[in-house]
Amino acid sequence: MAWLVAIFQTLLFIALAPLLSGWIKRVKCRLQNRKAPSLFQPYRDLRKLYRKRPIMPYPASWIFRAAPYIVFASTVLAAATVPLVAIHLPTARIADVIVLVGFFALGRTFLVLAGMDIGTAFGGMGSSREMTISSLAEPAMLMAVFTLAMSAHTTNLSQAVSFVLDSGLVLRPSFVFAMGGLILVTIAETGRIPVDNPATHLELTMIHEAMILEYSGRWLALIEWASQIKLMLYGVLIANIFFPWGIAQTFTPDALGFGLAMIALKLAVLAVVLAFSEVLFAKMRIFRVQEYLSFAYLLSVLGLLSHIILEAVR
Amino acid sequence: MAFSGLSLYSQAVLLLAGLIALTSFLMLGQSRLVRLVLVFALQGILLAATTAMVAGALDFPHLYVSAGLSFLLKGILIPVMLHRLIHRLGLHRELDTIRHPARVMMGGAFLMVFSYYVSLPVVAHSPLVTLNAIAVSLAVVLLGMLLMITRRQAVAHVVGFMSIENGLFFAAVVSTYGMPMVVELGVAADVLVAAVVFGVFFFQIRESIDSLDVDRLSKLSETDRT
């Protein structure tokens, strides 16, 4: 039963990720006084891409062919370890947060390799930028995770969530900082606006798009889908770690349904916040990204410090 | 006793302490003077909120007065004065570039650890729960000093100086639950006078060296060679 729920939850992750990005796009359009596309437009885009034949660039090797599958698979595996509607799932027992970061790193490595594999200038440029950003974002994310781990005394996500649930309403200074750091890292890692803009092909600033410029058809669909799942993953991480209320603790249909409704609500609110920040802020220069990420790292370190200083047990 | 065992008031005081530390760091990284003053105002408001929270937690009515005073003075009056000063001096478009932002930030984090280490024996001998925040207040003082060291604009120095005063006030609130009213009023008046005097000084400095960049104060010359 538990395994069934776990598999169902992972499938839900995969199925709902395009819906979330469709929702973000819709809110953004409304905010910019544009006519919004349908909520299901991302699904249509993916279907259209699936029907097309992928084209292999002439100098590409097997890495180019394998990368979309590896990226998608690693993202799905990462999604399997994150509690979406219920905690105490068997998948959560196998892998903890550090494994989750490792899955992200695996997918990213292959994406970067594929970007360099085709030998175009854009691919290499995007890869180098992606590596720069991720090498700065990963310590910040790990620090934020460690802040959480120090409070909950575990790196296991499921146990950490249940710890937050059990302790009720506690105003932890360290959690505020860790959340700030994690949100900044989320924006950087999923390529949202102040760092990268996945909606355009502006060669001066593109990061994610530059790497996948040569992909087409099925492979492009897989990569796009993986990045949508990744965005949703980070959103679920923020929503469930810092606001875990409503998540199912037992596997009854009622609890699961309530958990699903709650996470949908939380993600919808989070998406509105994200859309607002994207509308209000301008994209920054690529050379200022390291400043931005060092601020994220600082927030995470402050979270760790304020856990030690302010939440000391005497 | 675990952190979740504390009363919600004490938790809120500690949370606000964390946010005050954050504003100090924000000031350290802010290169635009107008925003620097804005963050300083935010710090003053947080300070007032903390004082009000302590007053509510312990039922000390006189702390409400001090909270209101610091809100009016540090949250509104002095920032407004500094803001107008910046506009009158025409500095609101100027950037006060920080040479190594990441290094300054790491230095700030180090100062925070240092102040934790220093205040460890003080905290160990007291039953007060909110005394944990004394490390934060010491850190705010040291970060204010760091701000004064790393900046070249005189206005930024004044903001740093004022935030040092904020740190001291915060230390008084969390460790002894407020200074005597006389002392508090005196300090508040002093800060206000300092703000006015600084304003006069700025005009003097600008008249004599044609800028508020304090690096140019170290050049010794009778005539203006430019």
From TrEMBL, chain A:
Subcellular location: Membrane
Main location group: membrane
Entry's transmembrane regions: 6-24, 62-85, 97-119, 131-150, 170-188, 231-251, 257-280, 292-310
GO cellular component: plasma membrane
Membrane-protein topology: Multi-pass membrane protein
Species the sequence originates in: Methylocaldum marinum
InterPro entries documented for this protein: ComplexI_Subunit1, NADH_UbQ_OxRdtase_su1/FPO
Source taxonomy: Bacteria, Pseudomonadati, Pseudomonadota, Gammaproteobacteria, Methylococcales
Keywords assigned by UniProt, alphabetized: Membrane, Transmembrane, Transmembrane helix
Domain of life, source organism: Bacteria
Protein name, entry field: Hydrogenase subunit
UniProtKB/TrEMBL annotation, chain B:
Listed transmembrane segments: 6-29, 36-57, 63-83, 104-123, 129-149, 156-179, 185-203
InterPro entries (alphabetical): HyfE-like (IPR038730)
Keyword list, A-Z: Cell membrane, Membrane, Transmembrane, Transmembrane helix
Subcellular locations according to the entry: Cell membrane
Cellular component terms per the entry's GO annotation: plasma membrane
Membrane association type: Multi-pass membrane protein
Transmembrane found in the keyword field: yes
PANTHER family named among the record's database cross-references: HYDROGENASE-4 COMPONENT E
Protein name per the record: Hydrogenase subunit
Highest classification ranks of the organism: Bacteria, Pseudomonadati, Pseudomonadota, Gammaproteobacteria, Methylococcales
